[in-house]
């Protein structure tokens, strides 16, 4: 299907690449280019991960590239910060200003007073930003990993010595999908196409989710969980597996530590007791546990919903214990330790050696978070800006991120960004975050520069993402910006001649240059399962630490915990007549991104909160009404969609909204108007983003929210 009907593909040249910057990327695509423009885009049937998949976001990406909203030149603030007055400047001036400002802060306050901030990693620039921080001398790379990815990775490293990623490329007999919606989103390069193939081959499915998703509709077992009670459910699954002796005896005997303690510990977590707390049926808990333990190999496809709660440590620890005792760890079709292909290791690329005291120097070190958490949680770096705790932070460089919209407690983010002495932001368009900057840099994006995909994701592969077209105006890749800033703020010999030099360096261990890598398309690591048979697990005990004794040092119980109130009800507020607020990702946007792309906006034009009809009736709310959602932290307004796919005690709101249908900035619908940065979980500094007690009320029609043109229809799009 041509993307631009006015252009023909007759004279086009076709290029193969991997989709990249509309989410984590990974779909293999053929792109037709004519006269420097993309005129067609097709999925590749045998794409290594995608198997012929392409989504609405990728199909809209040409509109993203040609949008009139694109930033085309570096901008310098001329009014007060946030006033919206800018002047265009040339690149040398922009880069020199950034370098001068960061060095001035380093001179006055020390290198650690500059934070290098990343949103969702999309490519090599994430790791180059870490290299820049290290070369500058700062240990502080701030990211959102406390609510995404890091808790699973860090728990994995401590419990079994690796991050157990789902293996969908070998056939499983069952898959437990927990807090993920693979038919709607591509989280961490995990595609529904592989899941579909598994299901066609007879793989059975269990789903844990507060919402009846597409996957849940096709599942053998569906546990419609009350948000925030995941740890208790994971322990109840363990209870069933252990009491019914459905565990893998040989694996438990030879490769686990603390099995007897875990067995004793799980005794009180009976399905009946946990069922009431989680709001699900006890027999369904038993069915789920039996499916996962008996239909082997079984994979756990877990999403970052698990991580958006202060109790994530316990949930994840319990789930890794479940993988281990059922013998589903590091086996084909289970959760595996994927070996990386022969490319430069992350430590070498990011030059960890340049900040040897990093672990002790990072902002969150003073909060005793779990060791190996390598990025600063958002709550802690904002507190450092506002309160100089544990030391002052005075400058920030932000790329690929919109923290004003995306971080918990929006008002705290605004105050922190305004309090900085200097803020530079690189992005594709102006956002509520760039509006608060001193310098804004215009970033190149999807298909506009050479890159290596899936590097550092732990999936055992890297994907070629060759440049297809030139970026518009003066846009430059983040890789180029960081390399140039690096030369100005640190020893020039730490930096690369150009991007090709950088990519060739990363690929050097493979013996390939970038052009040869592009011809191959991707590199995979060696496939070896059950690596522990020869070398043991990479833990101190060489086994899976079901009982993690080192946790005592961090003030934690060595066994995973879940608090269940005496009456078995949720302790998160619903027993007091309040609802529980949660959120889900949209298939058309990526967090706060792409709200400005018409083609996507038309598919999901409104911020919609999903409410069960019974709940809505009780509150006097009808389909399409505007609804105010209020928590103890604040409130926001969205449009009601009444649906029986949602629990009666839950409101599932859209996150990431900052723009009206008419293209104006409007943060009144933003989820983070009603979240709190603190308190956070002690383990990872995670705020509570799911299962927040709230109440809802209809907003009267005479209030002045900007309505979509000609429609009050609610677009039912979440599971498309
Ligand atoms: S799922 Fe992600 S990688 Fe695949 S086409 Fe869509 S945006 Fe691109």
The number of strands is 27
Q: List low-confidence stretches.
A: 706-720
Q: What's the overall average pLDDT, rounded?
A: 92
Structural class: alpha/beta
Main β sheet profile = 7 strands, mixed
**Span from first to last CA?**
20 Å
Q: What's the Cα radius of gyration? A: 25 Å
Bound molecules: iron/sulfur cluster
Spatial strand sequence of the major β-sheet: 5-4-17-16-15-6-7
- Helicity range: 25-40%
Tell me, what's the shape?
globular
Strand content: 15-25%
Number of continuous helical runs: 24
Brief summary of the model shown:
The chain has 720 residues and is of the alpha/beta class.
Overview of the molecule:
By secondary structure, the protein is of the alpha/beta class. The protein contains 24 helices and 27 strands. Strands 5-4-17-16-15-6-7 form a 7-stranded mixed sheet, covered by helices on one side. A hairpin with a 4-residue loop joins strand 24 and strand 25. Helix 5 crosses helix 13 (312-325), helix 8 crosses helix 12 and helix 16 crosses helix 18. The longest helix has 19 residues, at 91-109. It starts with 12 loop residues before the first strand and ends in a 22-residue tail after the last strand. Mean pLDDT is 92; it is low at 706-720. The structure holds iron/sulfur cluster. Iron/sulfur cluster (SF4) binds at residues 19, 22-23, 25-27, 50, 53-55, 57-58, 186.
